[in-house]
Amino acid sequence: MFEEAEHWAETAARQLPNNSYILDTKGQVYKKWFQAKCKVIDNDSKPNTAKNTADAVKTALKAMQCFQDCERAATADTENINNSGYFAEVEVGCNLLKLIFSLQLFANGARGHGECLKYLFTDYIPEVLKDDWEPFHDRLKKLYKTVEDALEWISGDLSYFQTDAGVDEDEIHLGPEAKINNPLKWLANISSVFGRYFSDASSAAFLQTGQSTATNLTPIQKRMVIYRLGGGNVTSILSKLREEKGAVDTLNKILSLYPSNPLKSKFDQRDIVNYTLASITLNCLSPMAPKGPPLKVLQDLCRQFPADKKKCLPSSLFLLTLLFWPEDKDTDLERENKYEVVQSAVQHMEKGYWTKMKDIPPRKRRLYTHFFLGSGNGLDKFIHKRKFEGLVKVTSLSEKRMKWLSGEVWKKPEIAKLLKRVSGWTDDGVVYLEGPQKQKFRIMPLHLPSLPHSNENITFYLGFTFRGPVAYNIVVNK
Q1: Are 278 and 257 in contact (CB under 8 A)?
Q2: CA distance 239 to 370
Q3: 330: Cβ–Cβ under 8 A, 6 or more apart, which residues?
Q4: How is the chain split into domains, by residue range?
Q5: What separation in angstroms does the CA of 368 have from each of 33, 162, 357?
Q6: 395, 396, 401, 402: CA torsion to nearest 10
Q7: CA atoms within 13 A on the CB side of 256
Q8: Which of 114, 126, 421, 448 has its CA 20 to 30 A from that of 186?
């Protein structure tokens, strides 16, 4: 009963035009309607043409517009977090791509696929599409960018709030009907699907034969293969740390698609972030294998981030705190310069975190620690949480969380050997790092009950989050 559902959804939206949940519901009506129209098209024995798919394309674009309206309303809402618009927009966008590529004009092998890419990426409009799709051309040519931006937003959101190791037990609720189980896996899968639509015959040849054909690919072809391999955003890259097989080979393929000398290449901010995180992830998975670029190269690359930190992506700021954390061998001047970079990044990360958290209750706030400061040097000093999750034997996610919060995890000698303790002190319930000389460096304790009641000299383990560095397992110096 789609016509009736449309009527009531539009009636509700007119009465509350800035309610993200109602706008999401309106979008869900068009999304389901689009799916129903696609089912009819699939069951029709006739080839898909511009004429018999125009109505479905129109409905898909209506759904995407509703979800974009939902996103804007959710951003303006200071009391609720509603990310449903982004997830639904990506799903509709990818299903729309599937429909477009199924057209008789585009479905004929490599030549048809190339014709479709030419239509989506350039001003070119095939004659057979010109009239029947006339209202849609402008929006369809922006479809790649629209879906890519939504994927990037979802990745950024999960970078803050993804759950602990029991991620399979987590779910994201998208309104009263829909929910996504294991959002990390969902993002990795749909990013790969997105990349596959835009990968052509040359890209497929690279995936089969490897590095020797990478030089024949255009920049956009390389970008799409990177997406297809799971290197298109922060969350998909870091999810490689959870894969049992093939992740090292995949990351090597991803890195081979970037220029051999990244410092002399024109990378945009996202490219720098993805290349750097892929390098760090590969080192975490295979520290003894031939390495990617050393820490110094990655530091120099990240110096290309905007000097105005307001223009930096949250993932860029996160990398600055990670890569520029001082080492024991640094001179006093090098330490001061590095702490300056880190503190500047942390100030803007804090602002971004509170903008994202809005005014929701403290019990609903979550923060994920991606890496810990280890006892190694260079890239080896970044220890991903996955490295020692297997050492914690539990039967449920709640039990695992309790072991982390109670400090039981830190008593294991294997973990103590991996990580490095950092010195600091407490002053009126605030933790400070024993580091920069110019100004105090405040560190957030992740578990407040672990703080000593009086002012003390302390040591702790350091974690890296998208809010800034955090202190774990605070111990008073005896």
Answers
A1: no
A2: 11
A3: 338
A4: 359-476
A5: 37, 6, 13
A6: -60
A7: 19
A8: 114
Backbone phi, psi, residue 174, to 5°: -120, 75
Q: What tokens appear for 327 in the block?
A: 């080492």
Calculate the CA 251 to chain-centre distance. 16
DSSP assignment, residue 164?
A: -
Q: Rounded to whole angstroms, how far apart are CA atoms 194 and 94?
A: 6
Instruction: List the chain pLDDT tens, one digit each, 478 residues.
Output: 999 999 999 999 999 999 999 999 999 999 999 999 999 999 988 889 999 999 999 999 999 999 999 999 999 988 888 889 999 999 999 999 999 999 988 987 778 888 999 999 999 999 999 999 999 999 999 999 999 999 999 998 888 876 443 333 333 334 444 456 678 888 988 998 998 888 765 566 666 665 545 666 777 788 888 999 999 999 899 988 887 678 898 999 999 899 888 888 888 899 999 999 999 999 998 876 656 688 999 999 999 999 999 999 999 999 999 999 999 888 999 999 999 999 999 999 988 888 777 766 655 566 788 999 998 888 999 998 877 776 666 556 666 666 666 677 788 888 888 899 999 999 988 999 988 887 889 999 887 777 888 899 999 999 999 999 999 889 998 7
Q: Are 171 and 179 in contact, with CB atoms under 8 Å apart?
A: yes
Tokens of 384: 């991903």
Q: Is 182 left (phi over 0), alpha (psi -120 to 50) or beta?
A: left
Question: What tokens were used for 185?
Answer: 């896996």
Closest CA to 299 of 253, 332, 345: 345
Q: Please choose, from the candidates 381, 389, 400, the residue with its C-alpha nearest in 3D space to the C-alpha of residue 464.
A: 381
Q: Which residues pair with 145 in a beta bridge?
A: none
DSSP annotation of 69 reads: H
Q: How far apart are CA 274 and CA 191, in angstroms?
A: 14
178 SS3 class = strand
What are 396's two structure tokens?
């449920």
Beta carbons of 452 and 476 less than 8 angstroms apart: yes
First to last CA, the chain: 72
Asked whether the CA dihedral 223, 228, 230, 234 is positive or negative, the reply is: positive
What is the amino acid identity at position 299? Q
Question: How is residue 54 written in tokens?
Answer: 């125009």
Distance (Å) of CA 465 to CA 68, 285, 369: 28, 20, 5
